[in-house]
């Protein structure tokens, strides 16, 4: 017979990050008590009956990180394509990856596709992304099934238009767009609505569904307006890319006589439930619109750094704009993103004093939660969801500790995440995901990607210096 104590976990920790007047602060030598899927209390000591006690001496307990923007699977098989290549004017890093991504989407078997997506989501979980926001090109149902099994939390969307070629790619040294007809985009929009009907609330409500037009340059204005109407009706929120490369900006100015952010305002997309990713190139009017509409900017510094660009971060905080963090594509390590946010932010501002470690951690937790309208995520307090990460601060690179947050942000790595808990269940223990066989999965991914690399080489989708080696 199960008793309340069986569903209770006590974590005895050296450091715990707790809310403090709208921000967060570290308290020392506390016990975090989990009851079922919720935080019970944070106390000096807990002597009650427990199903499990976790010793976290020398460790920092934080809210699980909310990863505000990913495309599952893209990190798995396009690393190394264009990192050292000069980009054509007006292009983005992903334009060089789309040809190989297309080969994969067209040729993976269902089992291969599942393995490639799971490999990416596995990294997300192991590095502490307890909640992910997935914008999927054709794999949303697979992601839902993987999340249900692995135990993390996800906001999933079937993005539209639904083919990666629609967002642009490099062919014969030029940027090409396969822009679909409005009817095709509308069909993708309907698929997004159908996904909501089918999967919203799945996995004991660990899966929720959002609407996700890819951007202001890829979706007709009438689809953007319809997206806002349906998001309001369903209460599901909107995720979209915007203001992230020069070609998109020129398209919006030429076709809508507005910046990308201005066009999103004109079509009603902006709002307190809108997560707008990248937002790299903005002016004062754009920032005013983002602040007035209470929209959330999702900051992806590692992804943009691959284009030799530093996206604003502190500038948005100073305007009162809510900011979340995302890994986007090619790497799924949220700790890397946290560190890059701090370090690149200092370079961008030309100041060592900003952003602070607390600024960055708040964005990775409270900022993401606010963007989702979830006051039960991103914080360790009574009644919040028991989504936690435990980080080891006693390794040679991050010990001894003067300030636990600074040590974590500037000196720790994703591999220092030791334990991950979601909904009161341990999903990563000792750095190992408990609900999958990583070794077996690696071999499935090896076989799948080796085959796709071969097909990619034949299709001219691999750089010449790698094609022979990968096949």
* SS elements, strand count: 18
Round the Cα radius of gyration to an integer and report it: 22 Å
Give a short account of the largest sheet: 8 strands, mixed
The global form is globular
- Classify the beta-strand content into a percent band: 15-25%
Name the average pLDDT: 94
Briefly note the structural class of the backbone: alpha/beta
Poorly predicted segments: none
List the total number of helices. Answer: 17
Walk me through the structure.
- The structure is a single chain.
- The protein is of the alpha/beta class.
- Helix content is 39%, strand content 23%.
- The chain has helices at 74-77, 98-107, 110-126, 140-150, 182-199, 202-205, 221-234, 246-256, 260-266, 284-292, 301-305, 314-318, 334-349, 357-372, 404-411, 438-458, 464-470, and strands spanning 8-20, 23-35, 38-43, 52-63, 65-70, 129-136, 153-158, 169-171, 174-176, 207-209, 238-242, 274-278, 296-299, 322-325, 388-392, 417-422, 425-429, 432-433.
- The strands form four sheets. Strands 3-2-1-4-15-16-17-18 form an eight-stranded mixed β-sheet, with helices on both faces. Strands 5-6-7-10 form a four-stranded parallel β-sheet.
- Helix 10 links the parallel strand 12 (274-278) and strand 13.
- The radius of gyration is 22 Å and the shape is globular.
- The mean pLDDT is 94.
Please describe the structure with a list of short key phrases separated by commas or semicolons.
471 residues, 17 helices, alpha/beta, 39% helix
């Amino acid at each position: 017979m199960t008793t309340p104590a069986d569903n209770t976990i006590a974590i005895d920790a050296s450091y715990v990050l707790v809310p403090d007047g709208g921000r967060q602060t570290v308290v020392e030598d506390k016990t975090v008590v989990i009851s079922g899927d919720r935080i019970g209390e944070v106390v000096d000591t807990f002597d009650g009956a427990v199903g499990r006690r976790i010793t976290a001496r020398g460790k920092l307990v934080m809210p699980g990180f909310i990863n505000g923007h990913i495309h599952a699977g893209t990190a798995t098989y396009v690393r190394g394509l264009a990192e050292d290549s000069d980009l054509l004017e007006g292009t983005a890093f992903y334009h060089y990856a789309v040809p190989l991504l297309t080969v994969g989407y067209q040729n993976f078997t269902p089992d291969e596709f599942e393995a490639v997506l799971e490999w990416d989501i596995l990294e997300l979980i192991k590095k502490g992304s307890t909640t992910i926001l997935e914008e999927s090109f054709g794999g949303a149902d697979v992601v839902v099934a993987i999340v249900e099994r692995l135990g993390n939390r996800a906001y999933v969307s079937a993005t539209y238009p639904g083919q990666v070629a629609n967002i642009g790619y490099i062919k014969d040294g030029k940027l090409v767009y396969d822009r679909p007809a409005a009817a095709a985009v509308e069909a993708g929009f309907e698929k997004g609505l159908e996904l909501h009907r089918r999967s919203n609330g799945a996995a004991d409500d660990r899966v929720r569904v959002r609407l996700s037009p890819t951007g202001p340059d890829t979706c007709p204005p009438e689809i953007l307006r319809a997206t806002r109407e349906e998001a309001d009706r369903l209460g599901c929120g909107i995720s979209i890319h915007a203001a992230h490369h020069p070609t998109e900006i020129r398209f919006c100015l030429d076709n809508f006589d507005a910046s990308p952010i201005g066009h999103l305002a004109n079509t009603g997309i902006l709002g307190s439930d809108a997560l707008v990713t990248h937002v790299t190139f903005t002016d004062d009017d754009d920032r005013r619109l983002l602040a007035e509409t209470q929209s959330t900017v999702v900051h992806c510094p590692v992804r943009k750094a691959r284009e030799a660009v530093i996206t604003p971060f502190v500038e948005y905080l100073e305007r009162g704009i809510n900011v979340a963090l995302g890994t986007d594509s090619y790497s799924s390590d949220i700790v890397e993103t946290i560190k890059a946010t701090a370090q690149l932010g200092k370079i961008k501002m030309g100041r060592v004093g900003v952003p602070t470690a607390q600024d960055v951690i708040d964005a990775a937790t409270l900022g993401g939660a606010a963007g989702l309208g979830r006051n039960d995520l991103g914080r360790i307090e009574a009644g919040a969801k028991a989504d936690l990460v435990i980080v080891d601060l006693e390794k040679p690179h991050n010990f001894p500790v003067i300030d636990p947050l600074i040590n974590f942000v500037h000196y720790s790595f994703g591999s220092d995440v030791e334990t991950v808990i979601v909904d009161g269940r341990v999903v990563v223990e000792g750095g190992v995901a408990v609900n999958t066989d990583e070794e077996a999965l690696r071999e499935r991914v090896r076989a799948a990607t080796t085959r796709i690399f071969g097909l990619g080489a034949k299709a001219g989708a691999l750089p010449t210096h790698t094609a022979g080696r990968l096949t």
